[in-house]
Design brief:
Number of domains: 1
CATH superfamily: protein bp1543
Strand order of the largest sheet: 1-2
Strand content: 15-25%
Number of helices: 3
Shape: globular
Number of strands: 2
Helix content: 55-70%
Largest sheet: 2 strands, antiparallel
């Protein structure tokens, strides 16, 4: 597994930094592009709907859920 990479970004008008492994950053780019969003826009949407978890965890869970949905759709 790759080491975490920290990136600074603005979410809901506030500067923050998020640490994720590179494969998660790549997945977020793919998901955002598929949805016609920027990565920052996708992260802001995830941030707005997260409940009880930190932002890094919410992003990882979003990526996992996205690819699980894709796998389920292919298996249907």
């Amino acid at each position: 597994m790759s080491a975490e990479r920290k990136r600074s970004l603005t979410v809901a008008g506030h500067r923050t930094s998020v640490s994720l492994e590179e494969p998660f950053w790549e997945a977020l780019k793919e998901i955002a592009a598929a949805q016609g969003q920027t990565v920052a826009g996708l992260i802001a949407a995830i941030d707005g709907s997260r409940q009880g978890v930190n932002l890094s965890s919410a992003l990882r869970l979003h990526v996992l859920a996205h690819y699980r949905r894709l796998a389920a759709d292919r298996g249907a």
